[in-house]
Structures are given as C-alpha cells and as structure tokens.
Amino acid sequence: MCDTQATQPEIKVATGDRAILPEGAKTIPIYVMGKKYEVPETLTIMKAMEFAGFKFLRGAGCRGGICGACPTVYRMAGDYKLHFGLACQTVVEADMYLAQIPFFPANRASFNINEMSAAADAIHALYPEIFRCVACNQCTKACPMDVKVLDYISATKQGEIAKAARISFDCIQCGLCSSRCLGEIPQYHVAQLARRIFARYIQPQAEHLRLRAEEIEAGKYDQMLDELSTMNTEDLESRYVNEREREPDMAAPGSWQPQDSRYL
Ligand code: FES
After folding, report:
1. Which residues contact residue 180 at a Cβ distance below 8 angstroms, ignoring those fewer than 6 apart?
2. Which domains can be identified in the chain, with CATH numbers?
3. For a tag on the chain, would you pick the N or C end, based on fewer CB atoms within 10 A?
C-alpha cells in the first residue's frame, strides 16, 4: 500500500499576514521603490513586500481582491511598458519594479442622492470632465479588474445610466484608471454615481429588503445589539462558538432554518 502522506513532502503555504516559505523555495529579485529585495517566487506582491520587511499600514485591506486598497504599478526590467495589478492578487516575477498607489487624488463631487433623478444631466453637471475623454482607452488598459472603463464612460456621456452601472459593476474603486487619464476624469467616482442613481431610481426596489429595513428602523434588533455590545469577549466567543445554531455543511439551499427564528 502506498502511503502518500509519508512520501509526499509537506508543503507549507502562506497564510495570514505572514509568509511561510515552502522548503527549498526559489527566490527572485524584485525592486520596491528602486531597492532590490530577494523574495520567494511563489508569493503575491503584498506578501513578498512583507517578506522583505515592509509593513502595510495603508495600501492593504481585504487581501482578497475586493476592496481596491492595493493598486500597484510595475514595469519589468528592460521593458518600457507599464503594467497594473492588485498587490494582494498578483504573483511576483523576477525583475519587477514596483510602486504602490494606494490613493489617487481624483476629483470627487458632492451630491445628495435623494435630490437627483434618473436623468444623466446630473452626472454631466457634476462631472463635466467626462466630455474631455479622447477615447485613448488607457483607463481600460490600467484596470486590474478588466472593467471596460472607456465603455462605461461612453455610456454615461450618452445618458445610458443602466448600461454604465452594469459595465462598471466589478469596479473596486482603486483609481488606477484615473491615474492614466489624459482628460483627468475620475472614472471610478463617475461609475459609482451611475450605480447609485441606477439603484435609487431605475432598479425596481427589492421587497424583502424594504421589509427588513422597516424592521430595523422599528427597532427589532436593538435589544439584541445592546446585549451583544455589553458582553465581554469570553461570553461573546462562547455565544458564537458553543451556543450558536449552525447550518449543516452542504445543506441544500433553503432546506435549513435555525430553531430560534426571532431574528429572521
Ligand atoms: S487588499 Fe483589498 S484588493 Fe488588495
């Protein structure tokens, strides 16, 4: 009988915020702000930088490609072309020259969504710079989420808010599009406004959500939240780990409900 556990080398994986190196991992050179570091070739940019000694106070959030906090620009040695990616998702390559741009100072308009309408005029008034677009498409090329940025800006210019909202749905607000724009357009803020107008005025309201919002406003959860917020850590852990009713693994959708249905 083949004992695979005995013959397979143990592979440790990088977990949490610190990298654990697989035995014999090869290292490669990368350059962070012009300084060379040798890092394991299996790591993401974020973990490679932490391996090199950097500590992320800004420029890291979810670590899962969702929050948009870690946009990174890089170039490969000997090549003029700029590349774009998320530090938490992109694996390092030898001779990467890296710079993080966790914040880009793009113009962001102020508005009250409840005083607007589904007409595109409002977006045009708040962000007239979208008409400076020269369709160079650098915004789309810079997007680490492969959002067709130029397409949603064009849709917005043409008054197609629903189309702009749909095309921009995967935007994570990292701002790399704006950093490349010749017209200095804050594309990601424009997209967010289009999605808010879409959700507020175009998309039919979800009835179950309306009912739940009413329950919250009526105070259905106030007592429970007050109780939880005054519990100490030990009791909270016990409530969560020992007393909580758990959905069985692999339960078919809709087939399970907790016995305590007070807060459903
Ligand atoms: S840390 Fe959130 S997208 Fe990278």
Report:
1. 138, 139, 141, 142
2. 24-100 (3.10.20.30), 113-202 (1.10.1060.10)
3. N
Quick check: CB of 68 below 6 Å from ligand 1?
yes
- The tokens for 163 are 């189309």
Kindly state if the Cβ of 20 falls inside 6 Å of ligand 1: no
Q: For the whole prediction, is pTM greater than 0.85?
A: no
Mutate to test the pocket of ligand 1, among 17, 86, 174 (most ligand atoms within 8 A of CB): 86
Euclidean distance between CA atoms 138 and 181, whole angstroms: 7
Q: Is the CB of 171 under 6 A from ligand 1?
A: no
Q: 228: Cβ below 6 Å to ligand 1?
A: no
Distance 164 CA to ligand 1 centre (A): 24
Phi and psi angles of residue 22, each rounded to the nearest 5 degrees, phi first:
-65, 145
Do 178 and 190 touch, CB atoms closer than 8 A?
Answer: no
pLDDT tens digits along 189-245:
999 999 999 999 999 989 999 999 999 999 999 999 999 999 999 999 999 999 989
pLDDT given at position 4? 39
